[in-house]
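Pipeline run #58 for the internal structure catalog. This entry was flagged by the ingest filter as a single-chain record with no existing model, so it goes straight to prediction. Upstream metadata was stripped on purpose; only the residue string is passed forward. Reviewer on rotation: M.T. Logging verbosity set to normal.
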Amino acid sequence: MPEEAGGASPRRGFRYQDLAAAFYFLTDYPEFLPKKPEKLHIERFDSDFAFVLEDDCGKSQHYFEVKFVETGELKWGGKFKSSVFPEFYRINSKHAEKGGEDIALFHLVTNGAAATRVNNFIENSEYLRNGTPWATFKKKYSRNELSKLLSGIQSNKEIKNDGEVIPASDVDDLYRTVWGLHLHTPTKAELELKIEKYLRRCSPARFKEPMNLILDEIADTGSGVLERRELEEKAQISLDPRDSGTSPSNTKNQEELHSEVEEIGSSRSESTPNTPQIRQERENVRELGERLKNHPETDRITIEAATETVDELYGKLEEEAREKSATESQIGQQIDTLLKQTELTSTSPEDHD
């Protein structure tokens, strides 16, 4: 498979994978990345997504494989041995064949469901990065884990059919791949929440629409590159969090501020009281009270008192909903007035000559 290519399947529908790509690309939570990536490589270099980074310490390439597990866990003898590790070996083999002397790191992202054996092995690979000799690591693992990973590579059909990859012949061939292993186990809900929190920091008043747009851009990219600057232009927000000591008026241009206020005004103008639900709940309580009153073993006075109190409180709730809706409608109207005035400020002096 060429370097530029990745998976052949369409990106639409891979929600967990799209969230993982957005999270590691956009946010500043991943501490293992030396800097924020400027480019997101989707379905390239035979990985689900990847980053190529460079800092004072040199160049590093981060390759990500995403495995969403519906039920159970990501087991050693299942996907990890037969699919995940061979895929990382394949990526690393091509990387080395092209003379890549930069650091190659391999990230397995799964939704919090890695088997203990997988988790422990990848955690222990950190010892290699911290200076443990390969001979020491190999002595501990070659009889079980390493020999099984070797057999997984040797039996992998994609590696056999890929002319650019030389199948491993000995456990020593696994060193670079094992050295670069990392495991990340965020749930789908955690990824969604952290991306939203990050975009709130970037644009407190307008973050949901940009979040959906960015995820759509990732989903619609079959195999290619997305740039941070490109996403900023399409989402019309900065993807860098605002300084906490800086006021919003000093960090936005007027066009961005106008857009955000317009979105606020639209949401307020469309607000309607949820009185049908309140009325339905009120009727249900009344009906229950009537039925209970006619039961020979219930306390009629207690039931009537409770029903009347709830009915009165629901009346207040309905009134508050109407008042809230009216207030929000007024906010929308006044914001609309402001927006009409801001449109006048965009007229240049030459227009009045």
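catalog note: The chain has two domains: 15-235, 253-345.
catalog note: The two ends are 64 Å apart (CA to CA).
status: ready for reviewer M.T.
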